[in-house]
Structure formats: C-alpha cells, structure tokens
Amino acid sequence: MSLGILIVSHVADITVGVQKLISQTAAQVPVTVAGGTDDGGVGTSVDKIQQAVAANKADELLAFYDLGSAKMNLEMAQEFSDKPIHLYDVALIEGAYTAAALLQAGVERSEIKKQLRPLKIK
C-alpha cells in the first residue's frame, strides 16, 4: 500500500509553499494540498479537501493541517473517503516535511508516527 501526504491550510499560499519545500527532499512522495475556501478566501473547504484526497495517487494518506477548523473539515472528509486518511496533530511544516522525508527513505507509517511524537501540538 502506497502512502502520500495531504496538506490542509486556511491559506492556499501556505499549502503551495509547504508542497514546494517537500518536493526538494521527497520528490517521489505524492503530495496534494487543499488551501483556502472555494472562493479563494481564508478558511478551509471540505470539497477542496475531498478533491485533494482524490487527486493523490497514494492508497493511504498522512494528513497535516494548520488550525482546528481545518482538522474538523479533514475529519468530515475522512468520513466520505474510501482512502484511509491519518491525521497528525503536529506542527504543520515540520510534521509534513519530516513525514515526507521518512516516506522517501522507505520508513513504515508506524515508525513515522513515533518520530512525529515530539512535534505534537498540545
């Protein structure tokens, strides 16, 4: 089963920047993003998240988000997805970057979860 990264932020430019950063280290890891609202404003959209899930060629996704309402929309998208989506309550940039680098190196999801623990946001 292949693993990919999903990044959700209230601002589209943030998701694009994180995706660009990750591509420098983990070019083979599928990364899709959902940033901003449907009309280009600040916020998140379940529809945009679902589109990003569908666009990601991986079988299973590790999801990273910036704020609580993004998590809430990710959880709603999880309910509608046939693809497993694992949410990580960690610092967005550091968490997504670390996970992608570890995926690129062939590290298993269980080990990635352990390595992300120090980045957990309480």
UniProtKB/TrEMBL annotation:
It comes from the Bacteria. InterPro entries: DhaM, DhaM_N, PTS_EIIA_man-typ, PTS_EIIA_man-typ_sf. It catalyses: dihydroxyacetone + phosphoenolpyruvate = dihydroxyacetone phosphate + pyruvate. SUPFAM superfamilies: PTS system fructose IIA component-like. One of its GO terms (biological process) is glycerol catabolic process. Pfam families: EIIA-man. One of its GO terms (cellular component) is membrane. This is phosphoenolpyruvate--glycerone phosphotransferase. It comes from Loigolactobacillus rennini.
